[in-house]
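Incident log entry.

Two folding requests arrived from the same account within the same minute. Monitoring flagged them as a possible duplicate submission, but the sequences differ. Recording both here for audit purposes.

Request one:
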Amino acid sequence: MANIDTLKTLLQISDTSIDTQLEAILDLCEAEYLSRTHQSEADDSIVIEMAIERYNQLGNEGIQQMNYSGISESYFSDYSDKVKALIRSKTRLVAI
C-alpha cells in the first residue's frame, strides 16, 4: 500500500486529523489502479498521484471549471492526462 506519510508530505499536511480520510483515499485509488491495470501489485507512485488528484477534488467533486456570470460549468470525468498516461503505461492486456 502507498505510504500515507508520502501523501501527507506532498499535500503539505502535518497533523493527523484526516489520516483516516487519506487512508481511505489511498485504498480506493489502489483498488482502482489494480482494476484498471490488471496488475497483481500497485505502483505506489502512481497510486499517490491518483490520491492527490482525488483529495484535491474533495468538496468540489467533478467541477473542472465554473463561470459565475455566464453560469457555465464543466466537470472532470477522470484523472488528468498525466495520471491516465501513467496508468496506461502499466496496463496489462487480458485475453478473454
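Request two (distinct sequence, not a duplicate):
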Amino acid sequence: MADHSDPLRDKNVVAVIDFHETTLYPTDSVPGQRPEHVVASDPHGRSHKVRHRAGNPRGTYEDDNAEYWRSISEALAPAAAILLLGHGNGKANASHQWVAYVEKHRKDVAGKVLADVRVDIDHLDDEQVLRLAQYYFMVPPARDFADGRWGEPGGEGLGGS
C-alpha cells in the first residue's frame, strides 16, 4: 500500500518526541512548510500526571499509551532515515521508550533510526532542529546569497549558463 502523497516518504526525518506530542520535520522541507504533528490521545486523563507515587513504588513512568507509539511508528515508517530528539533520563525520556517499542514491534522502523539525541526540546526552535539535522545527516547548510535567495552549497557558478 504505497502512499505517494506522503511527505515523509524516502526522506530524512527529524522526530522531536515527548510524552504528549511528536513533531516530524522532513529535512527537505521548503521555508515556511509546517512540520507534521502526532498527538497522544489521553482517554484516561493520565497525561497531566505521568508519574505516580501511590501504587507505583518504583516511581517509573507508565507505558499506558501503546497507541501513541504505534501512531508515531506508522507516521515514520515511510521515512528513509530518522533522527530522534528527546529529553529526560532513562524512562523519563519518551524517545527512549519509543525506541524500545519499535525494537520490539516494528524492527523495520527501528532500523531507520540514525541517532537518539538528548536535547532540551522545550527550547529548540525550527532553525536549531534544522542545524541538528544537517549535522547528523551530513548535509551542508544551504547557501545564503544575502539577497533573499537560498540555494545549494556552492550555488551558481561565476560563468553562468
